[in-house]
Amino acid sequence: MEIEDLKTFVEVADAGGVTLAAARLGVSKSMVSRRVARLEAHLGTRLFARTSRGTVLNEAGATFRDYAARVAAEIDAGRETISPAGELRGRLRVAAPLSFGPTHFAPILAQMAREHPQLHVQSCYTDRFVDLVAEGFDCAIRVGTLSESNLVAIRIGPIYGKFVASPDYIEAHGSPETPDELLDHQALLHGAETWHVTDGDTIVTIHPQGRFKADNGVALVAAALAGIGIARVPDGLTNEHIASGALVPVMTRHPPPPGGVFVLRPPGQYPSRKVRVLIEMMTACFGGET
């Protein structure tokens, strides 16, 4: 039984089909099909039902999937233990935020690929919260605050932000000084959300209102630059605009509390060395103030 056949079977099972599994693995669909067929021949049973909706696990496949995933993880862990120091192989599939990923995190992934020529790095930049297991990611980089989940979260470092608005908006609507005054202004929202502001040692929760929403921090900055309202965004997206005077900090006595940069991975006993190396590299870059 080939380890690649086991890994491919798990990928097809989690992806829900050959085409998506092939894209995740970086191989042809015919290669995926051959590996699955070879595993089924070795086991003497079918693992998938081929339907008009695609490839789905049958009862035998659903039973075997967890065993195959554990065996593949154990073998990967064993390989890492005996590999030459520093050598990384295989695939690292990472989800990163679209707002910060290409500018702040992509250089780290590129450095990692340069230092480890046998490593295949696949990154996906989206502000959507991906399902790490179902979509086949080794880990995700997330910024801000985390909601409850069964994922393992490693905090890399803090990330700071401000409330900002354009000079035109402030001239037309004034600059809020307190959390209560902020409620009278147009908020640029990431979704249906609450905002947290600091009041001395206390964190106050408010429910802002606004007519502009976006699921991307860069889009919220664009709306702030256009004078539509007040945005709450990380400093890394606004420093340049504040320096030029295109945006102005507001609520400076009541800033938002700091968030964090996190690496999330699926729960499991053996975090891969690829993920551990990524965490180490990110901590070296972002372990201080961001």
UniProtKB/TrEMBL annotation:
Domain HTH lysR-type, chain residue ranges per copy: 1-58
Coiled coil: none
Annotated InterPro entries: LysR-type_TF_proteobact-type, LysR_HTH_N, LysR_subst-bd, WH-like_DNA-bd_sf, WH_DNA-bd_sf
Gene Ontology process terms (BP): DNA-templated transcription
Gene Ontology MF terms: DNA-binding transcription factor activity; sequence-specific DNA binding
PROSITE patterns for this protein: HTH_LYSR
One Pfam family recorded for the sequence: LysR_substrate
UniProt KW keywords: DNA-binding, Transcription, Transcription regulation
PANTHER family listed in its UniProt record: HTH-TYPE TRANSCRIPTIONAL ACTIVATOR TTDR-RELATED (PTHR30537:SF5), HTH-TYPE TRANSCRIPTIONAL REGULATOR (PTHR30537)
Biological role: Transcriptional regulator of the ttuABCDE tartrate utilization operon.
Family, per entry: Belongs to the LysR transcriptional regulatory family.
Protein name: HTH-type transcriptional regulator TtuA
Record organism: Rhizobium esperanzae
